[in-house]
Amino acid sequence: MSNWVIAMMLGVSIFLGAAALFAFLWAIKNGQFDDEEKFLNAAKFDGEDELNDAFKREQKKKALKKEYRPE
Amino acid sequence: MIKDNSNYFCCNGCQGVFKLLSDEGFDSFYAKTQDVKLSPPLEKFEDSSTFDSESFRDAFVKVNSDGFNEIALIIEGIHCSACVWLNEKALHKMDGVIEANINFTNNKATVVWADDIVKLSAIIEMIRSIGYDAFAYDSSIQEVYANRERKSYYLKMAVAIFASMNIMWIAVAQYAGYFTGITQDVKTILNIAEWILATPVLFFSGWVFFKGAYYGLKNRVVNMDLMVATGALLTYIYSIYITVTEYGEAYFDSVSMIITFVLIGKFLEVLSKKNAADTLDIVGKHIPSETKILLDDTIITCKLENVKVGNIVVVSSGDRILLDGEIVKGQGSFDESNLTGESEPIYKKIGDSVISGTTSIDADIYFRATKDFKHSTLSNLVTLLESAINKKPKIQQMANKLSEHFSSVILGFSFLTFVVWFMLDNGFETSFMIGISVIVIACPCALALATPVATLVGLNLGAKRGILFKEAAQIETIAKVDTLVLDKTGTLTVGKPEVVKQSHFEEFDKELLYSLVKLSKHPVASGICRYLENEDETPGEILFDEFSQIPACGIKAQYRGKEILGGNIKLLELHGIKIDFISDNTLFYYAVDRKVVCIYELSDKIKDSASELIAEMQKRNINVVMLTGDNEKSARNVARKVGITELYYEQTPEDKSNFIESLHAQNRSVVMVGDGVNDILALSRADIGIVMGSGSDIAVEIGDVVLLNDSLTSLKDAFKISKITFGLIKQNLFISLVYNAVTIPLAMAGYVIPLVAAISMSLSSLLVVGNSMRIRYKFKQN
User: B552 and B327 in contact (C-beta within 8 Å)?
Assistant: First the structure.
């Protein structure tokens, strides 16, 4: 086995692991695990409506932000 | 029941909420609640305009980085996840509300809004209109800080564990290569991979150690952080040197493992720390902010701070008295057990003084305020409490004391090793490596894990038996305690009068008596009520034709022409009945048609295993003292029965706390056990305050240990668990020291190869963890 195969395999697997780690860190920072009850119930209350609501909320926040801080 | 189309409501409030929800399109809320039973919405609220006031803004509202307003609220009335859903949904639908995030576990919410579009009062109104209530809390308190700290530890541990796990499997290849041969090229590739992984562990996860070491040095203390930081950093630099020069063995695995293990130990400590600052918040929360006063012949509600000396305050039966004063109209009994520990209700009439913090049992009175709220007994208590919390003694934990010496010794050894090897002409490289190996092998993993793992097992064991330790360090403190101070009412005794004896004179209808006592809130009546309910079958209830309560005497009722009386001797005298009956206990007379048919004797029962507890404590050489606000007679009575020789009676809350202070002056460490508001000063002043779970909310918040099932057996268990846990902590520390005593000389002599270092490091940690698991076993055995 040539050396670059080892290097590549190590690199790829560490990269993949790191990607998952960063996703996990992002989720922690985002407060997704702060409330265990809510975290578990979120699956129950998930649906199209909730997705739409979340999108609307983002839009509202963006619109309001512009008013506050005109760029 | 109110019928509205096909739906039924218990009250207008619920109907209103339902209408509002359907209009807004939130009716799926009711499907989401499933089987949860909702309570009707609250109807009386204080004016929401105060939420817009300048002073409120200054106190609670923050402006976040985007320029929006942010407030922390506690939402009241949340029972299920559907409530969280509804509140969030309703708030998100409002114009100007940017974010609303409610935590189901603690009912705390963060709301972010744009102030020029919507006012905070409108947001509060919205929450109220759907049947909940919200009040602000100061989020700058310690709890938020503690949560943030916890979160940053999660992040650090995630990185450290991820990297360590990956380094481990690379290390397996390294070690296999060490024994079976490996080309230098492959070795370098593996080293570089480990280097990449170890870097974030050292500089991101391990940053706390650098910080700790820096602050330690600033205060001229050699702490464990310094040792971990120097050990890991030197090993890291050395390993980089090895990797670059392609000679020898790199130790990146040791770097990441040291950091990860010690970080886990540190995290366990952070996890079990309690946030003291929150208790003050709770004290304020439990004092209602309003009271009713009589002004120009009308009763109005008034803010407590605005009540002036001389105002007439109106109290109805069952109300809590919030100000000190003198009764000008009415009479009745008051429950003062909260403040004095007196188990019997106290009768008061016009001219008597009432004390804030007590509760009216059956008295509807008017009283004239003699002090304003700031100077009342109740707020004095709160002020005293604040200073008492700050004066709580701190006992340094043994592991911390040990690690300080340990760190300086190891760092010294390591330096010495390096110097000696260098002087013996072994070259800088070899001497440096051996010097470092001393630090690596002495890795404080086992030492760092010794205390937290053992206490965690102890905490869990306690939790299973209804003992809630709020902080891990308390286990160690309880184990060292030499004085146990007990409150009487509610701690040694049940705190409620129970029937101890009954004397029948004639046969009578139990249903009548049961229905009679059920009508009164008086503790004696409730005691008889409980007694009758505990008999073979609970009697049925009947409706009286006529019924009246005679304050401080008893109850009088008419049923099918029969006159029924139930109460104390005064009631009988009032109706011209004469009877001779002498007893030490509280008596309840029951008379039908002016003839006494039965007498119940009640007294505050001593809890089941009280004398066992006292005996056990004396066996352990712990001094037992009883402190009570009650009178001498009942205090001596209880003390004699359980076997306490040292007792102090008629103690005010301040007396109790001064007593604890005097014990401290004699260098004694004290556990105080109590349950009421009258104990909170002493509880917060003692080294450890243990509280009965059914005690007053404030006491439960302030106590360090809570006994959820109120039993004295758990108090005994708490001592037992602490003792065993502390014993095992000592063993753990001993194990890690012995391990070091054996391995450090080997390392100094230069006999330690990397594989041995890595294995022995994990082995010592495993040994400590395994040993801690024995707590459970030992507890069962004893």
Answer: no
Total domains, chain B: 5
Q: Is A17 on the interface with B (CB under 8 A)?
A: yes
Domain CATH number, residue B531: 3.40.1110.10
Tens of pLDDT along B423-469?
A: 888 888 778 878 877 877 776 667 777 777 888 888 888 888 888 88
Nearest by CB: A25 against B96, B147, B155: B155
How far is the alpha carbon of A25 from chain B, nearest alpha carbon, in Å? Answer: 6
Torsion on CA atoms B470, B475, B481, B484, rounded to nearest 10: 50
pLDDT at B288: 60
Residue in A24, A35, A36 to test binding to B, most B beta-carbons within 10 Å: A35
pLDDT of residue B289: 62
**Contact status, residue B354 vs residue B321, Cβ threshold 8 Å:** yes
What sign results for the dihedral spanned by CA atoms B472, B475, B481, B485? positive
Does residue B396 lie within any of the structural domains? no
Residue A63's domain spans which residues? 35-71
Cα-Cα-Cα-Cα dihedral sign, residues B47, B49, B51, B55: negative
Give pLDDT, residue B565.
85
Residue B636 has a CB neighbour count (10 Å cut-off) of 14
Domain count, chain A: 2
pLDDT tens-digit profile of B524-567?
Answer: 888 888 888 877 667 777 777 777 777 767 888 888 888 888 88
Q: Residues B566, B614: one domain?
A: no
Would you call B749 an interface residue with chain A, using a CB distance cutoff of 8 Å? Answer: no
Say if CB B151 and CB B185 are below 8 A apart.
Answer: no
Phi, psi of B631 (to 5 degrees): -75, 170
Claim to verify: residue B26 and residue B161 sit in the same structural domain: no
Segment B387-434, tens digit of pLDDT: 666 555 555 566 667 777 777 888 888 889 889 988 888 888 778 878
For the cut 70, the answer to whether the pLDDT of residue B41 exceeds it is: no
Place of tokens 């305020």: B369
Q: pTM of the prediction?
A: 0.67
Mean pLDDT of B721-749: 85
User: How many CB atoms within 10 Å of residue B775?
Assistant: 23
Residues B763-774: tens digit of each pLDDT: 787 888 888 888
Are B92 and B218 members of one domain?
A: no
Q: Which of B64, B84, B95 to mutate to test the interface with A (most CBs of A within 10 A)?
A: B84
Q: What is the pLDDT of residues B484-516, one digit of tens each?
A: 998 887 788 887 788 888 888 887 777 888 888
**Boundaries of domain holding B535:** 494-606
CB under 8 Å to B299, separation ≥6 — which residues?
Answer: B292, B293, B314
Report DSSP state, residue B98: E
Are the C-beta atoms of residues B628 and B651 closer than 8 Å to each other? Answer: yes
* Catalytic site residue from B225, B487, B630, B704: B487
Our CA angle for B408, B397, B481, nearest 5°, is 145
**Average pLDDT of every residue of chain B:** 79
ipTM of the complex: 0.78
Q: Which residue has the tokens 């695990």?
A: A33
Give the residue, B464 or B21, on which the prediction is more confident.
B464
**B 166-185 residues inside an 8 A Cβ radius of A:** 166, 170, 185
Kindly state whether residue B221 falls inside one of the protein's structural domains.
Answer: yes
Extended beta strands in B544-622, E state: 546-550, 554-559, 562-567, 586-592, 595-606
Which long-range CB contacts under 8 A does A1-10 form with residues at least 24 apart?
A3/B185, A3/B186, A3/B189, A6/B186, A6/B189, A6/B190, A7/B189, A10/B170, A10/B189, A10/B190, A10/B193
Q: Is residue B645 part of a domain?
A: yes
Same domain? A46 vs A28: no
Task: Identify whether residues B173 and B245 lie together within a single domain.
Answer: yes
Q: Which two tokens stand for residue B543?
A: 């409706």
Residues B156 and B233 in one domain: yes
pLDDT of residue B343: 63
